[in-house]
Each structure stands twice: as structure tokens, then as C-alpha cells.
Amino acid sequence: MIFKISHAEFCNIKKGLLFISPWIIGMALFVGYPIVASIYYSFTDFSVLLPPVGIGFQNYSDLLKDDLFWKSLNNTLLYAAISLPLGLGLSLFLALFLNQPIKFRDGFRAVYFLPSLVPLIPLAILWQWIFNSRFGILNGILNPLLQPLQASAPNWLEDPMWTKPALVLTRLWGVGASMIIFLAALQEVPKELYESAEIDGVTHWRKFFNITLPLISPAIYFNLIVGIIASLQFFAVPFVMLGRGPADSSYFFTMYIYDAAFKYLRMGYASAMAWLMFILTLVLTILASRVSSRFVHYETDNL
Amino acid sequence: MPQLKRKLNNQFIYFSAIVLAGIITLVVLTAVILPCLAFDLFPSYFRSDIHEGRIKIEYWEKWTGFEGEAMQKVIDKFNQSQSRIWVEKRPISRIEQRFLVSVAGKNPPDLAGLQAFMIPNFAEKGALKSLDELASEFNIKKEDYLSVFWDMGVYQNKLYALPTTPATLALHYNKRLFREAGLDPDKPPRTLDELDSMAEKLTRYNNKGKIKTIGFTPSYPGWWLWAWGFWFGGRLTDEKGRITMDDAGNVKSLVWVQNYARKYGLVRLQEFEGGFGRLLFASPQNPFLTEQVAMELQGVWMFNFIDKYNPKLEWGVAPFPAVEGLENVTLADCDDLVIPTDAPHPREAFEFISFVQQQENMELLCMEQRKFSPLKKVSEDFWIKHPHPYIKLFYELAESPNAKTQPMIPMFQQMREEMNSAFSEVWLLKKTPEQALERVQNRIHRAWESQKRVEEAKSKSQNSRLGKK
């Protein structure tokens, strides 16, 4: 019965569709068509210059045997596994901190948000200099601190062990966007709950875990999903900052797709990779929402 | 009454929706789709290929700056020399991608300046016009060229490109640092052992034990990491075109590379080289110009940067030393002129190419770009007037039987990337040279095999199509 539409509603839908028809057409032409075409190309050998030749599943079976594919996948997942929890944790911490009644609060909020506005390419070049092994500001600070320990700061961009931590650091610098979402969620938490908790004499920790965290769980969920997608699509910063990096340590999935498509002119192979990446993203997202559905609490559910 | 009002209101919304959708569709149509269609259907109408009554040749070139101006001088000379053809040069960045898209879109320029390593890939995929007939008609012969540069325009026995400005690589060294280290500035290393021992003498440390100046390191400038095997008698493909990444010479070269990482300490070298930062080649901060690197492998163009950023530098050039029994080993490269398959005026475009190939014009171009000529015949005047103090040495290297080129195979780009990654693994002491090269050999071999399967599928589908007819 829910799906039965009255005549008036039908008219409204028609009107609505009519209004957005230019965008629907545009999406279909410039987004929908390429997506469908890439499925087709992933089953062909296609170099742009010659017509595609169907080769069945060869691209996919070649990929599974391609150790560079596994290496780049490994790099990507490793990066995501380090940067996601750290990014979520840090942005939540900053949001909690900036939600306190402190002096110059608005100023601090602006300062912590600003880095996320820096475009990716300048960001990559800026951090290249921060990480510079001889003249970088980071090692300029670290080296004197480490001297008493007879140690020296790592060569961030030259040592394969340190390239991923360096990239995680650059990402943490830009947590402003997810911090703002947390901040908005924190301000939505009703004050009465805290007040009644205080009357009951509850500790700060209990307040955080039993009131704050459940009530901002939709924001955590949102940031988690966006974070998964963003870290799997990580491209511009490592591409500019490191290229493939020492021993391919910063060679991410997306960079291999780029190389296969535009350097080696293997569009079919690249399309197959892109589809595998889509499936991976989908699986991880579904997994995340399955797991978190038990923890996410929507206030409106109870109303 | 209210019912009527609602009805009117309803009609108004409908009306405005239709009008809005109509307007936007019209705008998109007129602004994007119609011009594209028209351009596709009547390209010659939109591409004015007439310039003041002459046939206009559109020429895409990657060069800008003084190198672009040098070519412009030759173009001006050509345009004045006759009244039928007009060549117009357009500077194009990222020419490989643009060229690809323009050919795929069947709307290519008449003429393009590519780098030699792009030729096999484009030729294999049918993007380039074979120049054999036109060349014999215009009396352009292999015998007139240094063979290494002619060969770079040939793919599977067909000529696809003719050279413009060539380059070779040689050892560049800093004479002042040689004197400071107690070495004779007029005696650059002649063997690899001499190179290694001189590099040790030239390397300076600060009081913290960190490198201040390096004599030599195979990791710098990092542009030909894949090619060190050439100086050790190695090769990347054999006469039959088979992949030989794990050739004994290549193994030897990577052993030599790894010895450098061990001798100077990997961490120390990383810190020193990391200090250079990236994107600093064409600047006064270039480590060779700031005397932080005493010897390096560089191309004939290095003089331009020395001249521009540190003309006081005391420097010399010598053939980069090779293993015993090999002399004057170098890596040659060149810029090429090509005609795309669907170019509207191939004959006229070739007329310009053949103009550039004439000794006089070639020398004008190469002199202005401060490189040497790819032709066998060079006028005495060219050598006398040339600003580069060591230009003849680069030419002699190009003449040498040991002048190598990148393998002329479509997969070269991938091969280069894989070889660079093998270098990186060896340099970082993660793998032995044998292990690293074995992996690369297997990878490239597998890619090669998979390419072959694709060829089979292609010919099969072509056969079935023919069968149906």
C-alpha cells in the first residue's frame, strides 16, 4: 500500500523529474556512460588508439598473478589501517577539546580547521620540505631531541619504512573537515543529559562513554565511511610527494591504475583494476556498516 | 475559485519547469554538443588550414623557451623559403597524452615533435604514418645519419620518425673539487675502479660525520637508473628482441650500485640525497652547480644550466668509464618529428621535415639549442662557432659503436619503471642484484606473454570478421 501513488503525487514526481532532467541527462552522459563503458573495457585489451579486443577474464586473471598489484593493494590497505583510526581519534579529540569553554575558542577552531582548506598539490610540496632529511623543519626539531638518545631522526621520504608514516602525518594535518562534523554532533547532544548525570554524580569518563559517544555515533559512522573511501582513493599527495617511493613503498592502488592507463596505455587492465577497487570499497563499506549498525544510535529512532 | 487558482498555479509550475529544462538543454546543446558534432563532421571547415592562401601545417611541439625559439627560427626560414606552405608551431605540454587523444579522436595535428622513446608504442598502435616512401622521394637516406639516431625512428623495419636534436650522456666533473682533493683536474677517471677511488677521495664529511660533498653516487640524478647495465656490457633486449633484464652485465652493474650503498652507508646517503629535495634540477640549487656532487652522469644539455646558473663553475666532461674492453659507452636519445596517421596534409608536413633535415637548417637548430647535429656531415663552422666547450666529445660518443639507446619496444615505459624499482630494491639492500633482476625479468616476460595472447585474440577476431564477409 505504501507504494501506491496518488495522482497528485505522480504529477509532483513528474514535475520534479522535469526540473532536474538536465542534470539527470548530464549524469547519464558524463558519469553513467563512462562507468558502464569501463565494465566493458575491463574485459578487453584497449589502448585508446586501436578498437578494443575482447579477451574475456584475462585482465582479471593477469591481475591476480601481478605481484605489483598485490604490493600496491598491500600499501593501500596498510595506509588505510594506520591512518583511519588515527585520523578519527585525533579529529574526535580535537572536537572534544574545542567544545570546551576555553578562551579564544573560535580562534582555535579556525586554526585547526584551516589546514584542511589547503589544496592537495601545494600540501604535498609543503610537506616535502617539512620532511626534507637535511633542511626540513621536522628533523630540525627531532634531531636535537633525539641526540641524547644517540639516535637520529628518520629519513622520512627516502627510507621505505618511513614513507607511510610520513603520509599519515600529512593526512592528520588535514583532519579539520571531520573535526567540524564531530563538533556539530557534539553541540547537538542535549545539555539536560549531562545535567542529570551530574546530579547522579557520574564521572567524566562515564559521561563520555555513556552519553557523548552514543549520541555522536552517527557522526563517527559517517566519518568512518568517508574515511574508508578517501584512504582507498589516496592519490594526489603521494603521487606528487614521492612517486613510487623507495622500493615501491608509496605505490598505491590508484597510482598503479594511473600508470597502467596513461603510461602503458593498457586501459582494459586499468579498468579491471578500477573495478576491483570498487568492489573492495563496497565490501569494506558494507562490512563497516554491518559492524557499526549495532553501535550507531539515532536519536530519532526513539521518537 | 481556489480550485481554479490551484489549477493555474499547477499549470504555471509545469510551464516553468518545461521552459527551464528547455533552456538548459538548449544551452548545453548549443554550447557543447553542436560544436562538437559540427567539428566532427566538417573538421576542415573549422580548422582553417589555409593561411593567407597557403596550406597551413599545424605543428605540435613540447619545447618552450630558448629551445622553442630555436625551432621557430627554422620555421620562419622555411616559411620564407617558399610561398605554398605555412608552418605554425604550437607549444603543447604533456604532449604524449595530448597526441594520443588527438589521434584517437581522429583530429591530429599535421606534425608533432615527440621523444624517441614514445615512437615504438605509437607506431605499434598505428598512430604514426610510415615515412619510408616520402623519405625515398625526398632523397633522405640512412647513410646520411649517425646510425643510432636514425634507428630510433625505425620500428619493425619501417621508418616512422626523423630526428631533430639529439643528445648523449657523459661524465661531468668539477675541476675545482678535483684540485682540492689532490687530483689532476685534467685526468678524469678512465676506468670504473678509478671512478670509485676518485669518488672516495672527493667525498667530504662534516664534523658530525655527515656527507657534505659526494664524489659520485649511481643514485644521482636518478634519471637513468635503469641503464647502468650498458656500462657493464649488459643489455635489456637481445638481437631477436627477447627480454634480457637479468643479463650478466646488468647483474654486474647492480652489484656495483650496491657497493656504493654499502661503502658510504645507506642512511648517510639517503639523508644527503634527501636534502636535495625534488624538482630542483633547473635551478641554481642544482647539486652539481652548488658543488655538492663532484661527478655525475649528465646529458649534453647540462652546459645550458651551468651557463645560466653558475657560469663560473670549473667543469670538464669525459666519456663515462665502462668495464674493461668497452670504450665510449653512452646512452643516446633524441627528439623526433612524426606525422600522425590521419594528418590532413602529410606531404606538406613532410616537406617541412625534409627542410629541417638539410644540413644547413639542422645545424641552425642544433646550434641554437646548443646540441650537436644528428647528421654525419657537419660543417667546420658549426664546431668553431658552437658555444658548448665540449660539444665534439658528445658527438664522438654518438658515433661510437657502443652508443646505446633505450630498447625500441612498445613496452619500454613499463620496462623502465620495473628496472628503476629493481635499482631501488638493490640500493636499499633489500634484495641481491640477482633476486631483483629475476623478479623484473619474470614480470616483463609475463607482460610480454600476455601481450602475445592479446595479439592472438586480435588476429582471431579479425579472421572471423573476414570469414563472415
Structure, explained:
The complex is a heterodimer of chains A (303) and B (469). By secondary structure, chain A is mostly helical. Chain A has a single domain (65-293), classed as MetI-like (MetI-like fold, Orthogonal Bundle). In chain A, 70% of the residues lie in helices and 1% in strands. Chain A contains 14 helices and 2 strands, in the order H-E-E-H-H-H-H-H-H-H-H-H-H-H-H-H. In chain A, strands 1-2 form a two-stranded antiparallel sheet. In chain A, a hairpin with a 7-residue loop joins strand 1 and strand 2 (53-54). The longest helix of chain A is centred in the N-terminal third of the chain and has 35 residues, at 7-41. The radius of gyration of chain A is 24 Å and the shape is flat. The two termini of chain A are 24 Å apart. In chain A, 30% of the residues are buried. The model of chain A has no long low-confidence stretch (mean pLDDT 90). Chain B has 469 residues and is α+β, with helices and mostly antiparallel strands. Chain B has 2 domains: 50-167 and 333-404, Periplasmic binding protein-like II (D-Maltodextrin-Binding Protein, domain 2); 170-332 and 407-451, Periplasmic binding protein-like II (D-Maltodextrin-Binding Protein, domain 2, 3-Layer(aba) Sandwich). Chain B contains 18 helices and 13 strands. In chain B, helix 3 (65-81) links the parallel strand 2 (54-61) and strand 3 (85-91). Chain B is globular. The relative contact order of chain B is 0.14. The model of chain B has no long low-confidence stretch (mean pLDDT 90). At the A-B interface, helix 1, strand 2, helix 2 and helix 13 of A face helix 1, helix 4, helix 11, helix 17 and helix 18 of B.
